[in-house]
Amino acid sequence: MPRTEEEWRVRLSPEEFHVLREAGTERPWTGEYVDTKTAGVYHCRACGLELFRSDAKFDSHCGWPSFDDAIPGAVKEIPDRTLGMLRTEIRCARCDSHLGHVFEGEGFTPKDTRHCVNSLSIRLEPKEG
Ligand SMILES: [Zn+2]
């Protein structure tokens, strides 16, 4: 596991490094997993930890992959006061890489939670068979 930002920089593409390690945001509708319906598990693109299952993914029409639940213990939440508003940032619990933000009370699904995640932060491992 890399311990410094320089070690991360050589392991990740420039785009991945910007999102994962500098809390960047990919442009909406540009990520590879926005409309993906494939069954499987989404892993942290930096360290490989399992983060989200495909059965929690739903169409939010916000332009980023959205999940109404995370694998227990895989994601940590941090208050984020940038951009003049209070949001909740989500990061990988193991490697501290930025994933996106989590929103509640929007009414999309019965769980009423939207993990809004950059495609560049995750990698889908399709279910076999
Ligand atoms: Zn990670």
From TrEMBL:
Keywords: Metal-binding, Oxidoreductase, Zinc. It comes from the Bacteria. It catalyses: L-methionyl-[protein] + [thioredoxin]-disulfide + H2O = L-methionyl-(R)-S-oxide-[protein] + [thioredoxin]-dithiol. Its cofactor is Zn(2+). It is an enzyme of class 1 (oxidoreductase). It holds the Pfam family SelR. GO terms for biological process: protein repair; response to oxidative stress. One of its GO terms (molecular function) is metal ion binding. The keyword Nucleotide-binding does not apply. Residues 5-127 form the MsrB domain. SUPFAM superfamilies: Mss4-like. Its EC number is 1.8.4.12. NCBIfam families: peptide-methionine (R)-S-oxide reductase MsrB. This is peptide-methionine (R)-S-oxide reductase.
